[in-house]
Amino acid sequence: xxxxxxxxxxxxFKGVDSPERYSIKVIVRIVIIVAVLYAGxxxxxxxxxxxxxxxxxxxxxxxxxxxxxxxxLSLLATVLLDYASISASLNVISGEINSGTWDxxxxxxxxxxxxxxxxxxxxxxxxxxxxxxxxxxxxAAVLTAVFIIIREYTFATPYLTVQESITFFLFNxxxxxxxxxxxxxxxxxxxxxxxxxxxxxxxxxxxxxxAALVAIGKVLALWFIQALxxxxxxxxxxVLFLMLSAFGTSALCAPFTVLLxxxxxxxxxxxxxxxxxxxxxxxxxxxxxx
Length: 290
What we know:
The protein has 290 residues and is mostly helical. It contains 10 helices and no strands.
């Protein structure tokens, strides 16, 4: 009932028959827009140097420039996702307390943990559209990279044997596909963790101005921790590769080692942050009840 009540307040959710279908439409729309922009980018760059015919080096350079810009925009959009996630959850607990409706929620049969999960689900819906846009940009970036790889591989295919083609796939495309999945799903994991962090702030700080300042500090601290984690992972992988190189297996194990290190690190970091936040909020609400 709490989720149904909160969903009625979401303007974008009204008239949406299927959230999954709506999400697919948004992502497909973004991918189509990026594809049109990509075609226009290539055409404009070619017109600048016309009448030189399209060459392999020209196409690779222009496409790589567009891919770098697109990947940079998708990463910058993560800042907007953090803002949307925190904003969606800053008032979710304190608003109930300040308005007096929290006392009514206490009279229901729902426990603190159930209320926290319901509130977390609602905050995710509030930040859902921003997350879809970020995922759409990242999918477009990955598809652009795939298009470039396929085109370059097509040129190189006549000079590769069957064994070299299989090696190229195993040591390049397979890890790339897996890491692309992490790159695409990271906004979803991040949104879930950031909304939980916002709920922690909302349960602790009732003043809106103070909550905003605390949220800025928390986000900056989170980015700093993420930077330390990245440095630690890179350092650990470097030491591991040095150890493997002593046995002559660094080139063989490098792609799969990177894959096994990045996925658990990224997913585990956000999962731990989300679970800590939700449990902290539940304990806070239990103390308020007491």
